[in-house]
Design a protein that fits this description.
Pfam families: DUF2961. InterPro entries: DUF2961 (IPR021345). It is a single chain. The longest helix has 4 residues. Helix content is about 5%, strand content about 15%. The chain has a domain of about 80 residues. It contains one helix and five strands.
Length: about 150
Amino acid sequence: QLYDTLDTAFPGLVVGTGLEDYFDSSYYFGADTFLKQAQPFTSPLAGLTVFERSTDGQERLSAYRFHVSDPLAFADGGRLVWQVGGVAGGGRTKCGVPLPRGSAHEAAPAPNVGRELSPVNVTAYGWTYTWPAGGADFAQEPGGITI
């Protein structure tokens, strides 16, 4: 969820129901399908360039998302938050959505990852471009170079 200010109430703006959704993918980048491994991909606005999963459940990934047509603006302590390790049960998915009636997974609990979930380290970079007021107003440098 995106909380654009310090006092924005839950749930803020939902920008994805899972980490992979935020990066325009699904089924945990393909790792939770019959393939059993993530599928790196690239596109102009989002991609997964690295995905490593160890036998003990540790994961390392590198993904990107450019907010060209959907900018996320923060002010006064805004933040982007996601939950690690959703819990299923009571006929609901780990995202809290009711399972379809008669689903084979209707009574199945969420799989245990075999370890306590730990904090996640995130490194993020942000770039902002602001168009000059009044449109393009380029300066002419000596030597005929336009900047």
